[in-house]
Amino acid sequence: MSWPHTTAVRGEQEAMSEFADVVRNRRMTRSFSTRPVDPTVLDSLVDLAARSPSAGKTQGWHLVVLEGADTARYWDITLPVARRAGFRWTRLLDAPLLLLVLADPDAYVARYGEPDKAATGLGASADAWPAPYWTIDASMAAMTLLHAAEDAGLGALFFGVFQREDAVRAALAVPDRLQMIGAIALGYPHQDEPGGGAPGRPDTSGRSAARRRRPPAEIIHRGGW
User: CA geometry: angle at 68 spanning 65 and 72, to 5°?
Assistant: First the structure.
């Protein structure tokens, strides 16, 4: 016989174990299959990301999504064909989805100018904010999306738009007011294809992969610094 309390605790432990597996198994994927991702799958991932914390429930973040052959619009600007011969991650360009993560500072200023938030003074301007919560919220949403992708059996890579951001903005008509947080390549890992790469993602590790992961004892400062 199982007591209700015991059953509930066991269920919570199993759920936490599943979540821990998602977090521990998530890796940055740099080698993709060209297999397309069903649009409803992307919608479900974004729906989960939209549940991330958001100051004042502003939800001031956006995604510009490039799909299939349309992803070439990004790569042709940031990694022209002439430079690809020496590029280490050739199958990164096979990712069927590219998501540009954008944050809207004006949305936060407007939200905190509303009556229930006006007393904070944060509705005056973006400069009034001690920390850029549009950046924070968009980053948390991106992290939630990365975990959701892992849970869905997809690979994902978050990377900075360090090359020719102005040209990318112009090509995709991204408004100047929006902060570009970064990009997410999304799709099925290459080894999931029949005859694809070996398991364990051996061809996807970045140069920092061998660095030691800090243990909790080096991160936690109990009672103060």
Answer: 80
